[in-house]
Amino acid sequence: MTEELEEMGPVDYLIVEFPGNRMTGEGLPLLVDLVERGIIRLIDLVFVRKDADGSVTALELQEVGDELGLTVFAGASSGLLDQGDLDEAGAALQPGNSAAVVVYENAWAAPLARALRRSGAQMVAGGRIPVQDLLASLESADAGA
To answer: Per residue in 14-55, pLDDT tens?
Structure first.
């Protein structure tokens, strides 16, 4: 298992909230395309719902809706996520909403990550800049110019 992990690229997660539990499936073909092209490797895909009382429950794919074509993701569960992780994801949600929790390997970066590990380098920090923050910063820079 350790050797397998040494071969992996960076692993990220996303929590995508669906207001009012309304999932259209519009982004699913794009997710499938990323997997099929080997850009990412899906490790976990779990859907959760946050009830009005604040409780968070995992949803079965059938509960989310067969009409969305989610059967292609059946079996996309490593068991990595536990109830504590789902509760933490639920903390980001508004009551009455649902979310997809996606854990994925950045397969495109695996060769670089392997080379860096072999050379003794190690990732010491990482992060993400929300698009809204980037746009606000660019607008601020444009206003000051």
So the answer is: 999 999 878 777 888 898 899 999 999 999 988 899 999 999
**Rg for the chain (alpha carbons), in Å?**
18
Nearest CA to 73 among 29, 113, 105, 119? 29
Outline where DSSP puts E strands in 19-106.
41-50, 56-59, 98-105
Domain ranges within the chain, ordered by starting residue: 2-144
CA distances from 132 to 20, 84, 100, 101, 106 (A): 22, 28, 20, 21, 23
Instruction: Please report where in the chains the tokens 């606000």 appear, as a residue.
Output: 136
pTM (2 decimals)? 0.80
- Amino acid identity, residue 64? V
